[in-house]
Amino acid sequence: MTNPARTFDHVDTWVFDLDNTLYPHHVNLWQQVDARIGEFVANWLNVSAEEARRIQKDYYRRYGTTMRGMMTEHGVHADDFLAYVHKIDHSPLEPNPAMGAAIEKLAGRKLILTNGSVDHVGAVLSRLGLTSHFHGVFDIIAAELTPKPAPETYQRFLKLHDVDPTRAAMFEDLARNLVVPHGLGMTTVLVVPDGTKEVVREDWELEGRDDPHVDYVTDDLTRFLQGLAG
């Protein structure tokens, strides 16, 4: 917990990021996607794996997603990119009935807001056993291919799902993706890697956890949600 000025008593819409938020970072599912992105960049641009990695991370920082950078700089089609990078093995994910029960007890709607695709969301939620707990998904296609943290993406999400941000909470694993939601009035929760597990993250991905736009920090989302439900 960092700046607990906001509470959850008024919340009637619960908004969750997907990757590294609804499942723990140490499962390393995202590392598979990350590797596939690197392969796509290397193949498309005909560059070495090392150069592809540099480009991949540069675009990720500057454009919000590598895909957006590849579209803008190199004319890549989103469908081609998404189909390639999400062709991964979801088997490391295991059902999480405890999280499902905690989500079920939260009063109101539960929505997914992700820079991934609907197909990826479906596969992840199915493996976690959480599909029935969510009322809607807003993916990168619904965002018209403009990823978080772009302000217009949150506005599209709010309008499409008729969400009052002052009555909503958002759970995310990247602090920078909570700046706009907090500014709109949402209660924000940053989900960080379990301190007992070794994970690979870029330094910039870990920045911002102590900033004013982060109301709460947890390394155990299930336990945090159980506390809210209780």
Query: Which CATH architecture of the largest domain would you pick?
Result: 3-Layer(aba) Sandwich
Q: How can the largest sheet be summarized?
A: 6 strands, parallel
Show unreliable segments: none
Order of helices and strands: EHHHHHEHEHEHEEH
In terms of DSSP E residues, the strand content is: 5-15%
Average predicted confidence as pLDDT: 91
Please state the overall shape, judged from the principal axes of the Cα atoms. Answer: globular
Please name the fourth-level CATH homologous superfamily of the largest domain.
HAD superfamily/HAD-like
What report would you give on this structure?
The chain has 230 residues and is of the alpha/beta class. It is built from nine helices and six strands. Helix content is 41%, strand content 11%. The protein has a six-stranded parallel sheet with strand order 3-2-1-4-5-6, with no helix packed on it. Helix 1 (29-45) crosses helix 2, helix 2 (49-63) packs across helix 3 and helix 5 runs parallel beside helix 9.
Question: Topology of this protein?
Answer:
Elements: E1 13-16, H1 29-45, H2 49-63, H3 66-74, H4 78-85, H5 97-105, E2 109-113, H6 118-128, E3 136-138, H7 151-160, E4 168-172, H8 179-184, E5 187-191, E6 216-218, H9 221-229
Parallel strand pairs: 1-2, 1-4, 2-3, 4-5, 5-6
